[in-house]
Design brief:
Elements lengths: L6 H21 L13 E2 L2 E2 L8 E4 L5 E5 L4 E6 L2 E5 L17 E9 L13 H13 L1 E3 L3 E5 L2 E12 L2 E12 L2 E9 L8 H8 L3 E2 L24 E2 L4
Length: 239
């Protein structure tokens, strides 16, 4: 006996197959982000997926840490700035000296108390600080997207940086870890910026700020100073 000879049995079989297919599709909604490090969204919150971030960089002062891909090299430019590049020799390059597949990602640590905005409302102050920062560094970006990753509120926007005849892709991301902003800036060749967006989002989810208690009589690092992008960074070896 064939189910095609009995329409009711045939329709029930189709309905059962459809339910199974819908259940399989619906199961994807519970994905925990284990997709090789690419960011996903769930009700407006970016799923934390740090699988591709195999190493941790720490500022020498112990004030902040952030995870990054194993193939990136890390140097510290100032007491409050991380710098990441593809090759160790690129640590000494200025942004307008980048070419080919070279890139630079800087992450500036800025305590909310030193930001001049958001002291009473750090999350609400992110928009003002984002606008002020991009204007100060001369990066033209689209309207920022607000998202949350690993419980941390953040803003991200893509755009471009123009220096003379050189135009580069740029991404600016600001993430808040309780009482400090992490300000991430990517510069790379035109057309290559989108390849970094998921990585930057996930790095933002690993940004951790640890205030250093002041020691009596000890000089404290100046975390309000402007980033010294033309300084020679000190490469940090990582295991």
């Amino acid at each position: 006996m064939s189910i095609f000879q009995h329409p009711r049995i045939f329709l029930l079989a189709i309905a059962a197959a459809l339910l199974i297919a819908l259940a399989a599709c619906g199961g994807g909604g519970d994905d925990d982000g284990d997709d090789g490090g690419e960011a996903e969204t769930n009700n407006g919150e970016t799923v934390f997926a740090p699988e591709g971030l195999d190493q941790t960089a720490a500022l020498a002062e112990g004030t902040a840490t952030i995870q990054h891909p194993a193939g990136w090299f890390f140097g510290q430019v100032t007491p409050n700035q991380f710098k990441f590049v593809r090759q160790e020799a690129d640590l000494n390059l200025l942004p307008d000296q980048l070419s080919g597949d070279q890139f630079v990602v800087t992450v500036d640590l800025l305590p909310v108390s030193a930001s001049g905005v958001g002291v009473q409302d750090p999350v609400g102050g992110m928009d003002d600080y984002f606008e002020q920062y991009t204007a100060a560094v001369g990066i033209q970006v689209d309207a920022p997207e607000r998202f949350t990753i690993n419980g941390k509120p953040a803003l991200i926007a893509s755009g471009s940086s123009v220096s003379g005849a050189l135009t580069q892709d740029a991404i600016v991301l600001v993430v808040l870890d309780e009482t400090a902003y992490g300000v991430m800036v990517l510069l790379t060749a035109e057309g290559a910026g989108a390849d970094f967006e998921d990585t930057l989002r996930n790095m933002a989810g690993t940004f951790e700020y640890t205030p250093v208690p002041p020691q009596p009589g000890a000089a404290q690092p100046d975390l309000t100073a402007e980033p010294a992008s033309d300084a020679t960074p000190e490469a940090t070896s990582e295991s």
